[in-house]
Amino acid sequence: MAQAKAIAKFWIATSNHIEHVLSHERLMQTAEPTKDVRVVHRLVSDMYCRYVELCRNLDRCFDQTLQVQRRQVIQGLLEAANSRMLELRSKLQEIELSEFVYIDGALQELHLIPDDVEAVKPFYLPARRPMELQSLIDSRTLKLIADHGGDEEDNLSQESEQEEEEEETSETLRRPIVKRDRQKERLRAALALITAHEKAREARVRQTNFRLHPDRYYPKPIEEEIEDIQYEFFFRPGQQMLYPVKRTVFNWDFRMKQKNVVNFAYYAPPGFQEQVRAIPEPIKPPTKRKQAVEADELAALEAAEFQRLGEARKQQRLSDAAATIQRCWRRYHASKTRTRERYKRSKFLGLFDEYEPNETDSRSVDGVRAARRERKQEFDRAFLAAIADEKARILRTRGPALLEDIGDAVRAWFCQWYDEAHAFDVIPELFEGGTMLIVRGETLTPLEYLEQERQRQLDKLKSAEQKKKEADAKKAAQEQEQAKRREEKERLKTLAAEKRARERKEGKTYDFTEPEFVSNAYVTLEETMRRYRKDWAFVNELENPGDLPIMEWITLEKFAEVHRELHADVHELLKSERELLQIALCKDERGKYKPPKPKKPPRTKGKRAGKGKRKEPIDVTADRTVESMFDELVERNVVKSYRPRTFEDFVGDFNYCAFERRNRLGQDPPPAMGEVRTILRSYLCGMGPLAVPKPKSLCLLGPTGCGKTLLLEAICHETGSVLFDLCVETYGPIPAPDIPAFLQLVLTVARLLQPSVIAIEGVHRAFYKKVPPQEQPFDPSKLGKHLFKQIVKQLNAEDKVLLIATSDQPWVAKVGPLKKCFEKFLLLPRPDYGSTVLLWQHALRRYVGVPRDLDLSALATVTRGYSAGQILRCVEEVLRIRRRMQFGRRPLQVEELLNHLLEVTGQLPLADKDYGKYVKWHSKVDKLAKLRVKVMRDQAAAKETGTTKKK
């Protein structure tokens, strides 16, 4: 209930937002006509930003609203707002002469960021099909589209994915998942804590006993010399103690206080040998007793000096060891401090992102929204049941009275005609309105009938000359009227030609009151909002927590529907009564009864039958079921599956300096990869249940590894489309005469299973200028001869079918036929610095243990221009399982990636000359690109002329 109230409040705020946007629309219409393109660009971009935000709010309202009548209003507003947003974007593309538009000025004025105006995935995508069709698709085993080849970026991760799956499977087999017992873990932790405290207490008691009672507790001295036991001690930084013992100072030296430590063997590293200079014993000459005593004293002094020197050397070695340990520790600590400070500085500067989103909260929110979305069908069924019950109630309670009222009204009409005209008028046919026109008073009155009869009698008395004069006068008036229309048409044509010539010479004048700015979508949005304010003025939407329908409106609507149905039911009865009255009147007047001629309903507008009628093509799928046609396409490997990709997998950043360079410096900057997502998502708005315009066909151009197949799979996945693959390997075995029937079969199944995507990878092969010898057995150009007629021309605006093609060598194809088949040509840009940084981050973050503070800025600067496929391939080849196992003792370095990319693989980025071939070909087929090249050439020539004049 609280959620329903929150959604109602959000809808009220959104309705106020609509009024705010419409007020800005009216304000823009009051602007004076101008020739300054910058002013027009600023106004249109401002409105575009507002409509993007409005469409997001309406999309959320339409997604979470359960009240059916309000949802119908929101749906109309959402369709109009989306159409208006696409119109404004098309206007910006027309102004900037490019598919990629930049509105940084409007973002600064509205305090927004580029993510706020990026197109998002609508809630109604992926679209849903009927249950029987979806079960038919799910029951078939389909081949993956990337099995026969594709972009390097799309195929490079299959091996690593299989490797990861095998690793996860083996890990699962080795380590079964065991449920944790929290109570036992708490008991073990408590027992470990008690044990640690008890051991510390015993150690303190033992030390006190040794200090107070040395005779009792000190061990007896060992006579033999203590052997030096060699051992190794390994210590790892950050290693925790086995038991968290309370801090106690242990001095075990007190065990050796009573022992002579002069010859005590100290610890020496393994393999260390002390080199002590041997002092030769003095030779005792055969002298007298005094000399012997002096010699003994000298020997004692020498022995004492030798002992003192040994102790000094020992102390010096200990001091040197302590200094070495301290020096190494200080260097290690300083290095760790520098690394920590550099990490904090890089994090503060935003060189890497350590933020990990809370996926649990987002999943819970998505779950709540999905649960509320699933209840829409329940409310729809309840609404339809309420409509049926209300109609049945009206028929049961008011039906007989309505029949009597209709009959009484028509019979009163008969009496009026008989009293005033002594005749009976013909009841209109059902397609004209029937008896409803009589009740409304929209039929011929008796006075008008008498006037027509009088005029008819006068026409009979006229002579032939008078009739001829009147006919000639009428014909002359018609010819004069047609001449005026022709003159007006010629005048408008001349004005339009003069306007175009003036615009070519002086520049276009933008009038904000013309239909190009005041479009049908804006008018629909305004009328829908006005009708909503009028109808819902007395409805308190906050007092309907159960989202129940408003029964008063249902009653009025069903009452009118029942009234129309009863008029149709009583029409034949009253028509028979009128004939009986007319027969009786003719008998009274002794006249002959002439039944009225039945009128035929008007024909719908269409092709006229006759000699010039075009023969309709024979439908080869007329007598076939959906299952048989679908199974045939599955057997031919036409219907294929795809990997679950999204547009977020197409990693790329925006071009943040393009606005300044294009609109203020007059340059033509290259687009960035992040702007491709917004363009493609704007094309997909019409793939759902809403009536939003969309292109029929789209062609993606770019070199190998730039993500064409990834975008194709993302389009299919986000729209939930069925993929029909028409590559050369698919239609190659089909004979050329059977290609039209094959394409008709594909289009029929695509319409039945819509939304659908018909994909043609390597479309240049279907329009070869000259077929290579190795491909001549397939005859790839047989598809291009029938593609426009059988697929593109047959697609309607309401069909949720999209034709998508990819090409990495478009210059080998014929420009004319290829340009005729596709409405949009999108050239995928090369990665710039920002996109390259994001690509490295995206490729490295998939692996655990990779340092977050890698210097990716320098790496991206060096590898700028490499395709996304090359970058991802490099990361996957470097970070194999064996290298990832070494992260603990040998962290990853940037030099490894760079050396592998430059030395091991020897790959080079796409040269400017090679990419210029794509740009040159794209400027031939794309209308906006061709105009932009011409404008830039004219600007450069004018600038050069101005510089020459100054000199």
From TrEMBL:
Ranges where the ATPase AAA-type core domain occurs: 698-812
Region called Disordered, residue ranges: 150-176, 458-506, 590-617
Classification via InterPro entries: ATPase_AAA_core, N-DRC_Component, P-loop_NTPase
The protein, known as: ATPase AAA-type core domain-containing protein
Biased composition (Basic residues): 593-614
Molecular function in Gene Ontology: ATP binding; ATP hydrolysis activity
Organism field: Anopheles atroparvus (European mosquito)
Biased composition (Acidic residues): 150-170
Pfam families: AAA
